[in-house]
Design goal:
Beta Polymerase, domain 2; six-stranded mixed sheet; single chain
């Protein structure tokens, strides 16, 4: 069986096993690259909740933010492994806000603790 098919089967099985938020796209490449999963949503509290749901289904989870070079949006992502060891990056984009991301210049990536997502998931604690 083609390796891409094996990877697609593995991510499909993971999605079937867990009640995860809506996926917009899945990127699979034959090679060492992780599978990339893009989630729907553009409001930070929703994105944070969706990423936390994924984090609960993965092992060895880390998180980061990346402000796109144009500067108008920020990708919030988590990286981890499925229980079968498949590397996965799950992300979504949110509009850039100086209030939420004051020290994130255009094109920069910053690692962050996963627990930051918990604070962002509470809408009353996030500026609009």
């Amino acid at each position: 069986m083609n390796r891409v098919m094996v990877l697609l089967d593995a991510i499909r099985d993971h999605l079937d096993l867990h009640n995860l938020p809506r996926v917009v796209s899945v990127g699979v490449r034959d090679g060492a690259d992780p599978i990339t999963v893009q989630l729907a949503g553009s409001h930070l509290p929703d994105v944070a909740r969706d990423l936390l749901a994924w984090a609960g289904s993965l092992d060895g989870v880390t998180a980061s933010i990346w402000r796109v070079p144009s500067g108008n949006s920020v990708h919030v992502d988590i990286q981890g492994r499925t229980p079968c060891g498949l590397p996965v990056v799950v992300y979504s984009g949110v509009p850039f806000s100086e209030d939420l991301f004051p020290d994130l210049p255009a094109g920069a990536r910053q690692e962050m603790p996963v627990f930051v997502l918990r604070g962002w998931a509470k809408p009353e604690e996030v500026a609009a």
